[in-house]
Amino acid sequence: MDARLNYFASPFAGKILKHVMPAGKALKESPVPGETQELVALRVSQINGCAFCVDMHTKDAAAAGESAVRLNLVAAWREATVFTEAERAALELAEQGTRTADAGGGVCDEVWRRAAKHYDEEQLAALVVLISFMNMANRLNIITRQPAGDYVAGQFH
Question: Rounded to two decimals, what is the model's pTM?
Answer without folding.
Answer: 0.93
